[in-house]
Amino acid sequence: MNLKKIVAAGIAAVCAVSMAACGGSGSGSSKVTDIQYKDIKLGQTGKDIKANLKLFSHRTDMLKNDYPGTTWKQYIAEFNKTYPNIKVTVEANSDYANSAMTRLQGGDWGDIMMIPAVDRAELQNYFISYGSLGDMNKEIKYAVNQSYQKKVYGVASVGNASGIVYNKRIFKEAGIDKLPTTPKEFISDLKAIKEKTKATPLYTNYAAGWTMGAWDAYIGGTATGDPNYMNNVFTHTKNPFKDPGDGTHAYNVYKILYDAVADGLTEDDYSTTDWETSKNKLNSGDIATMVLGSWAVSQIQSAGDNAKDVGYMPFPISVKGKQYATSASDYAYGINKNSSTTNQEAAMIFVKWLTEKSNYAYNEGGVSIAADDDKLPDLYSDFKNVKLIADEPAPDGEEDLFNDLNSDSELNINSGGDSRVQSIVEHAANKDESYNDLVKEWNQKWNDALDSEGVDTK
Q1: Residue 24: pLDDT band by 50, 70, 90 thresholds?
Q2: HEC-encoded secondary structure of the chain
Q3: pTM to 2 decimals?
Q4: How much is the pLDDT for 12?
Q5: Average pLDDT over residues 355-361
Q6: Euclidean distance between CA atoms 151 and 169, whole angstroms
Q7: What is the arithmetic mean of pLDDT over 416-435?
Q8: What is the pLDDT of residues 304-338, one digit of tens each?
Q9: What's the pLDDT score for residue 217?
Q10: What is the model's pLDDT at position 117?
Q11: Least buried of 76, 245, 291, 331, by fewest C-beta within 10 Å?
Q12: Residue 375 — pLDDT band, cuts 50, 70, 90?
């Protein structure tokens, strides 16, 4: 059992003993507001509410006055023009994935938090429902991602498409006039960058850890073209990391990283990479590419004087000649089940305002969460011939199967699997284990997990 599941189990135990221990900043009452997200009419609903809310966020940068984008202070000031009596304070932590799990267990996180990696079955233990899945699908995108038994417990803050941040000027200097669409083309382009420019072709951001986990986001729809793959196919497939022989699927996603490191196309010393300085280095052209979600583009554009040089290209995998990009949600807002009903209603109003009125997702270079807003930021200009797809949900009764297999196998795919992806860099650099041997180990772990869970395989 991995750490996150252990912590989640511990939280459930604590809350079972004393729901008050998991309370928020409200009255500590276990009552839940009757209001539904769909019933809120911004500017009308809750005009007389007086509340002091606390939001626990992963966005530490937005607390800084010199943040080049819109700060939390600015968003809240705009919100208070409509709701002057709903006061919001924000706390953020740079190690959010771990600290949020700890804070959730301690119960001192406030009224709204970005939902950490808890099992879906546990969502109802900590958060109120925004409404039924059917209703919420009409209101927001990605509603199913934080749902359980047809109820939705989280509203995504922003949608991201999977691609690669790159420096346009460096690509031009390297003589690259067409973006790569296959792993072979991408590695060839990285070699051209190394030969013709002074830039680091691909920066791994190994030392930060969480940045390595970003590679997991590409093995689903992006690498297969199948929106059912992650939750309906992968969970019933033996040897899912094997080479399909056509440049697609998980095998070829991670092989790009292994080959780039093995061929000397990454930084000289992976152990000394630095996330904060890497943003400026890509902006200035010292780095050519970084594999990250689209959320990173606005941060990198604002990290220096060369915003126009920072672009976002589709991940270089094609399925039968067509490119795809998984569109997925970032952290979702969850509202504390044990805040007062007044704070719960005020919190839902604030979340809906962030989703529909603040322009937050667009400002951060992401896909809008509002169901009826299909406007895409300019950063997706290279995605004109790419189909964006969202993962389909798991079938009824299998909502937690992926998490269970992830935990049993200890592969932690899309769930803090930083060390597994870091091991690709380590073995490629040290040349002490082949990529195929790594893949063999992963397949065995996944197959063992399938057997332990009694899953029917295809």
Answers
A1: very low
A2: CCHHHHHHHHHHHHHHHCHHHHCCCCCCCCCCCCCCHHHCCCCCCCCCCCEEEEEEECCCHHHCCCCCCCCHHHHHHHHHHHCCCEEEEEEECCCHHHHHHHHHHHCCCCCEEECCCCCHHHHHHHECCCEEHHHHHHHECCHHHHEECCEECCEECCEEEEEEEEEHHHHHHCCCCCCCCCHHHHHHHHHHHHHHCCCEEECCCHHHCCCHHHHHHHCCHHHHCCCCHHHHHHHHCCCCCCCCCCCCHHHHHHHHHHHHHHCCCCCCCHHHCCHHHHHHHHHHCCEEEECCECHHHHHHHCCCCCHHHEEEEECCCCECCEEEEEEEECCEEEEECCCCHHHHHHHHHHHHHHHHCCCHHHHCCCECCECCCCCCCHHHHHHCCEEEECCCCCCCCCCCHHHHHHHHHCCCCCCCCHHHHHHHHHHHHHCCCCHHHHHHHHHHHHHHHHHHCCCCCC
A3: 0.75
A4: 36
A5: 95
A6: 47
A7: 94
A8: 999 999 999 999 999 999 999 999 888 999 999 99
A9: 92
A10: 85
A11: 245
A12: confident
* End-to-end Cα, the chain, rounded Å: 25
Distance of CA 26 to the CA centre of its chain: 29
pLDDT at 394: 87
Q: Sign of torsion, CA 446 447 453 456?
A: positive
Task: Take residue 411 and report the two structure tokens written for it.
Answer: 């592969």
Per the model's pLDDT, the better-predicted residue between 311 and 31 turns out to be: 311
CA distance linking residue 300 with residue 148, whole number of Å: 35
Provide the token pair at 435. Answer: 């990529």
Q: Which residues contact 46 (CB under 8 A, 6 or more apart)?
A: 40, 83, 86, 345, 346, 349
Q: At what angle do helices 249-262 and 183-196 cross, to 10 degrees?
A: 20
Q: Which residues contact 203 (CB under 8 A, 6 or more apart)?
A: 266, 267, 273, 278, 281, 282, 287, 289, 290
CA distance 419 to 423: 6
Q: Could you give the CA distance from residue 80 to residue 28 in angstroms, rounded to a whole number?
A: 25
Q: Is the pLDDT assigned to residue 411 strictly greater than 80?
A: yes
φ, ψ of residue 325 in degrees (nearest 5): -140, 125
Q: Counting every residue, how long is the chain?
A: 458
C-alpha count within 13 angstroms, C-beta hemisphere, residue 5: 16
Do 130 and 152 contact (CB within 8 A), yes or no? yes
pLDDT of residue 95: 87
